[in-house]
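Next comes a single protein record:
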Amino acid sequence: MDFTARWCVTCQVNKATSIDSAQVREAFAATNTAFLVADWTNRDSVIANALAEHGRAGVPLYLVYPASGGDPVVLPQVLTPGLVVKAIREASGVSL
């Protein structure tokens, strides 16, 4: 899950360099993983509450939920394609 905002420079860099990379798109497709976006551009209270539940006051926040259920893995604020693919692979239980 990508907690992001249009005004967040780090979010936009991560999107351009990692999230929208061919490697990550292929990992999502290969593992049948859903990609969800929580757009906090207009400071929605529902998203603010979800951020607070994870100890955050703002974006970016990247969560990867395991296919088997349970708590999400929190990714670092600065992403690489390899880091995202590894998290997707581990959460899905599918070898890539």
Q: What stands out?
A: The chain has a mean pLDDT of 96. The beta strands are 2-4, 37-39, 61-64, 73-75. Helices lie at 9-19, 22-31, 45-53, 81-92. The CA atoms of residues 18 and 81 lie 4 Å apart.
